[in-house]
Amino acid sequence: MEKSYSDSYAAAGVDVTAGYESVELIKSHVKRTTIPGVIGGIGGFGGMFELPWNEYKNPVLVSGTDGVGTKIKLAFLMDKHDTIGIDCVAMCVNDVACSGAKPLFFLDYIACGKNYPEKIEQIVKGVAEGCVQSGCALVGGETAEHPGLMPLDEYDLAGFTVGIGEKDKLVSGEHLKAGDALIGVASSGVHSNGFSLVRKVFDISEKTIGVKYDELGTTLGEELITPTRIYVKPLLALMDSVRVNAISHITGGGFYENVPRMLNDDTLAVIEKNKCHKKPIFDLIQKVGGINEHDMYNTFNMGTGLVIAVDSDKADEAVRILTSCGEQAAVIGEIKNGEKGVELV
Q1: pTM, two decimal places
Q2: Coil vs helix vs strand at 162
């Protein structure tokens, strides 16, 4: 008797019908992100976007890709999946905007042990919200079931974005010089970096994330799952009025790794810690974990998500523009001549 393979994919743990249901559930979220340039809808083999070439003299495409790291464990423990997508978008579009480009479109990739359509919908809802906040379109993605490779109730999330910028207006660092002012823009919290250390410090579990700390004003879990702030629109508004000489997105590696990435040889970034934005969560992490200050600044954003360099005579205007866009911004230091690096004083 010939063996039938009609049910073999389902027997292997992949539910094709769940995939169809997921697509139907996410359509309304994807629709929210539609902007001029989008061609067609989701469900095709490729997401299409018409580039606005006529708006640029020498257009340059800028791309970025990232995930959310082990922060995703918080979503599992809290069974809260509607904000982790914002983090994924933020990690990609913030990097693109730091180059002086406007994000155009985004694609996500969800790998899961089992496709639960309602959970996938919540994840994509967050992705769509991140796209709306950054003004880009969600033009496609992929949800892949990995039975036997991942636990049934877990998933991983990554994304990819493409932006566009005018070649002579891109932020390359070529104009950076001694005397430039450094502006710090506040973060919303831990963002999406350093969570392996955070999980170790607090021995993260369903029990510990429910502990309420007076200094936080909320539970540990609610504080930690706060989405990464998306800086795209404020940055674009700033760059429309003020020449930005360099930008550093403070992600994994904190100040000591990220600030030097925006510097030229023989330029030193001097940052005054007492002028930087403060977040109670970082004092708590340092206290509970017994972590020295250098390691804190070498791991976390410490309350400052962006460091922006502008001409010193443009600093006040830059702060005003960023503040008018809803950001907390302040001058936190300056560029000096010296060995390439960052000095925290």
Answers
A1: 0.94
A2: strand
